[in-house]
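Please decode residue identities from the backbone states below.
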């Protein structure tokens, strides 16, 4: 387990929920290598326990890594272009700049001492190796523990080849009790503990010999042993052994050199022991890109042959047989198929001729949910949908990939992207959003309103990344297409985006004129989300221009107050956090420090609930400026350091707005003068290296 000295937020390593059998020598080897080598890879055949050993080893060495142990499960990733975004998400890096995301990752890791566990590199070993080498070159404090069926063949790699659990000799049946020295740390101990937990099975003098023979026939493969233990509810161990002997004899006559024989035999044997509906559900569940919940299983897998009302009982049967794993660590019940079991299910799904239909059903289900999230985004369930989208990332990606690769489905891919746009903006996944939008736009044919909408959304993502060179052409294409189609909503959005680019480039007069015109158009169109977006953008632009004689701050405050009224009426939170922050900024610029600090704290609390890193960074910056003006210089330096830690993961400090950068430099220049260079750097680094959650608890108790 993670040592008590580690901060709660250092890493994302899941707790160990089950016991662990044997592997003492392997764990010692891994710990020794991690202390001296930069890259350690655990290899071995499927089901051998690579993930379990990696996680146990990571827990054991966690105290050596002050910046935590971080797990990236690469099993759902089959597209080389998604390895970097997936790794960034696992590490909490949400880069909003236009820079290469791999560079952002390297920058995030450059001054950290952490262990990165890259689990299941099998699908894309070459891409994983290239990324690992790139990160290790630029991050001296980084250690990587990888798992896969073969080495990565990366520079400096040390390999630990895992083998099966030991099995007792054939004459070990005379030993008294399964905890005797001959059984401890062996496949027999694993089988017995698993069977006891699942069915109350106990080793006796009568069945001990059969248990040992069973584990020997399974060659000590841990997953094969666990699957066998899951079948004891309906048969005796002797009956299991007889069935296994029959299957192995057939396989030996076929290909005796297959080193995965025992695992595939055990999986196939588990398949035979399943009821027909369990086999059918097993095959259909293999379409999920990652883990899933009961509602998704019902929506995707049910039909006349497998009615929805039966899914829960059939799924429970698969859990009892260890075919499906159940996880409740997040507070919600999730299910997942182990990799080998999922692959077997995919093969059966193909044999049944159902693969194409089930993959479309899976994509349709998640497209429907994304559309629902888009429709209700401006409402009280906003934070719940944010959490859902993060949880279902692997399944959403699988659905997007199908729609983009499927002939004639480009418009469906665009529909899914446009439904996810608000999430990508609000939750900071700009690079991934652009990746999917650009692929979908490339595949989708036809001059449609949906394409026009996707163009301005992609343009805005590029604008937020500071990539104005890419944003401009997209916006022009959108305006041309919207004019051709007579699509007023897209024309208004294009005008709004043009104003946004002008604001980011510092042309506030032009931006305000365009924003005001766009607001009139969007009010007339009745687009509530667009109106609320314009209210906060207009307010920010007025604050940035800050011409008191022209009433800029008063106009900004009025716009924010309207936005807050609308936010309360809708019950939403994201626009509320934006309006509160801009109100705080306006109060600070107007000299009302007390109000500014209270509003900034309130905005930070809301952003924290959404895990909106950009807005959190903005609030921490403003609180640092407020503290600097109030001569709380040590606190100002620490808060600025905490904001800097966020900018290193999101890119584009203060969204690249020169006016805000000027406020930052002025405030911190004053703090440095007051504290002196040494004390300033110490306080700044203390804030930068502190776990974000600890900083937030201090600022917003």
């Amino acid at each position: 387990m993670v040592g008590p000295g580690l901060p709660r937020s250092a890493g994302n390593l899941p707790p160990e929920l089950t016991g662990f059998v044997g592997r003492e020598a392997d764990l010692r080897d891994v710990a020794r290598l991690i202390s001296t080598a930069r890259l350690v890879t655990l290899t071995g055949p499927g089901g051998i326990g690579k993930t379990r050993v990696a996680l146990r080893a990571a827990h054991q060495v966690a105290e050596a890594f002050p910046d935590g142990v971080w797990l990236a499960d690469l099993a759902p990733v089959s597209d080389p272009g998604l390895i970097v975004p997936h790794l960034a998400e696992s590490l909490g890096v949400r880069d909003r700049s236009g820079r290469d995301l791999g560079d952002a990752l390297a920058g995030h890791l450059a001054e950290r001492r952490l262990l990165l566990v890259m689990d299941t590199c099998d699908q894309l070993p070459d891409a994983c190796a290239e990324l690992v080498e790139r990160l290790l070159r630029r991050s001296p404090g980084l250690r990587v523990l990888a798992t896969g069926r073969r080495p990565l063949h990366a520079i400096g790699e040390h390999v630990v080849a895992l083998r099966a659990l030991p099995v007792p000799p054939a004459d070990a049946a005379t030993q008294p009790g399964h905890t005797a020295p001959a059984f401890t740390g062996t496949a027999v101990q694993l089988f017995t503990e698993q069977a006891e937990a699942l069915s109350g099975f106990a080793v006796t003098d009568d069945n001990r010999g059969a248990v040992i023979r069973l584990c020997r026939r399974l060659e000590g493969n841990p997953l094969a042993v666990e699957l066998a233990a899951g079948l004891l509810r309906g048969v005796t161990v002797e009956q299991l052994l007889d069935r296994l002997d029959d299957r192995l004899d057939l396989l030996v006559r076929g290909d005796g050199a297959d080193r995965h024989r025992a695992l595939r035999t055990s999986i196939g044997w588990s398949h035979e022991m399943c009821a027909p509906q369990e086999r059918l559900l097993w095959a259909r569940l293999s379409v999920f890109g990652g883990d899933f919940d009961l509602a998704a299983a019902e929506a995707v897998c049910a039909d006349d042959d497998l009615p929805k009302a039966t899914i829960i009982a059939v799924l429970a049967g698969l859990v009892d047989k260890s075919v499906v794993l159940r996880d409740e660590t997040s507070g919600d019940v999730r299910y997942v198929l182990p990799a080998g079991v999922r692959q077997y299910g995919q093969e059966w799904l193909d044999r049944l001729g159902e693969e194409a239909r089930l993959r479309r059903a899976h994509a349709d289900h998640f497209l429907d949910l994304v559309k629902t999230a888009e429709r209700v985004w401006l409402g009280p369930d906003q934070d719940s949908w944010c959490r859902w989208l993060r949880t279902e990332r692997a399944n959403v990606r699988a659905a997007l990939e199908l729609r983009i690769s499927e002939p004639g489905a480009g418009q469906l891919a665009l529909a899914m992207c446009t439904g996810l746009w608000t999430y990508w903006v609000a939750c900071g996944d700009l690079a991934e959003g652009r990746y999917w939008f650009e692929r979908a736009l490339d595949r989708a044919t036809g001059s449609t309103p949906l394409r026009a909408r996707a163009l301005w959304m992609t343009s805005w993502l590029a604008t937020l990344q500071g990539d104005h060179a890419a944003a401009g052409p997209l916006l022009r294409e959108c305006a041309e297409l919207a004019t051709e189609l007579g699509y007023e909503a897209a024309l208004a959005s294009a005008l709004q985006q043009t104003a946004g680019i002008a604001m980011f480039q510092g042309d506030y007069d032009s931006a305000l004129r365009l924003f005001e015109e766009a607001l009139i158009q969007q009010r007339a169109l009745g687009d509530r989300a667009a109106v609320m977006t314009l209210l906060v953008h207009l307010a920010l632009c007025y604050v940035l221009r800050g011409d008191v004689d022209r009433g800029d701050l008063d106009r900004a405050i009025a716009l924010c107050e309207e936005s807050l009224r609308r936010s309360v009426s809708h019950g939403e939170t994201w626009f509320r956090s934006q309006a509160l922050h801009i109100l705080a900024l306006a109060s600070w610029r107007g000299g009302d420090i007390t109000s500014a600090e209270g509003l900034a704290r309130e905005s930070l609390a809301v952003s924290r609930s959404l895990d909106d890193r950009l807005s959190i960074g903005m609030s921490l910056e403003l609180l640092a400026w407020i503290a600097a003006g109030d001569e709380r210089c040590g606190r100002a330096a620490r808060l600025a350091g905490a904001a800097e830690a966020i900018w290193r993961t999101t890119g584009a400090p203060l969204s690249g707005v020169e006016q805000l950068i000027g406020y930052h430099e002025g405030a911190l220049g004053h703090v440095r003068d007051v504290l002196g260079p040494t004390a300033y750097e110490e306080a700044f680094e203390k804030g930068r290296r502190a776990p974000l959650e600890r900083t937030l608890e201090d600022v917003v108790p």
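Observation: The CA atoms of residues 312 and 525 lie 45 Å apart.
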